[in-house]
Amino acid sequence: MKQKEFNIPFSGLKQGKHHFNYQIDNTFFDSFGYDEFNAANVNLDVVLYKSSTMLELDLEASGTVNVNCDITSEPYEQPIDGELHLVVKFGEEFNDEDDEILILPHGEHQLNIAQYVYEMLVLAVPQKRIHPGIEDGTLQSEVLDRLNELRPKEKRTDKEENDPRWDELKKLLTDK
Fold first, then answer.
1. Are strands 7-9 and 16-24 parallel, antiparallel or unpaired?
2. Nearest-5° Cα angle at 50, 5 to 17
């Protein structure tokens, strides 16, 4: 299994509420082969509620990831926040087909949450990554300067000019 530090040994825990805290950096994403982030600094709080028949996990993550802007390719810090509620039940065999319910085989004594954390954090990043300096106009970049140079200078208006070749064909439609 990936990321052994994300194994939660629940078999020795008493029933009730337990807290776990993780600091996530880029090595976590590298272990999954994900290289979209230049750097990561995310704090993950995990609250485990243990009862006699099941486990409930509440995962909350907040922090920043350094990504490249889709428009200018300039790196910037993108704040991210993510939440996930996971219910762990026990059954005959392992089943993770449901996003919110995980079934572990009886006799299992630990749970690895690395995959859930990975998916939660990757999905917390906006699909379109735009440097905040573009929106407020403070970013100075060669790419933006070049895009402004290539911007159309005047508005095009589509004038309807009649093509004499089509006028003769239009007469055929109206001559019925």
1. unpaired
2. 80
User: In a 10 Å sphere around its CB, with 0-12 CB exposed, 13-18 middle and 19+ buried, how is residue 57 labelled?
Assistant: buried
Chain segment 101-114, per-residue pLDDT in tens: 888 888 888 888 99
Determine the Cα–Cα distance for residues 87 and 100; give it in Å rounded to an integer. Answer: 6
Using the Cα atoms of residue 48, residue 103, residue 94 and residue 90 in order, give the sign of their dihedral.
positive
Q: How far apart are CA 163 and CA 6, in angstroms?
A: 71
How distant, in Å, are the alpha carbons of 98, 104, 105 from that of 95? 8, 7, 9
Cβ count near 29 (within 10 Å):
20
- How confident is the model over 116-134, as a mean pLDDT? 87
Structural contact between residues 144 and 72, judged by C-beta atoms closer than 8 angstroms? yes
Other CB atoms within 10 Å distance of the CB of residue 84:
20
Confidence of residue 135 (pLDDT cuts 50, 70, 90): confident
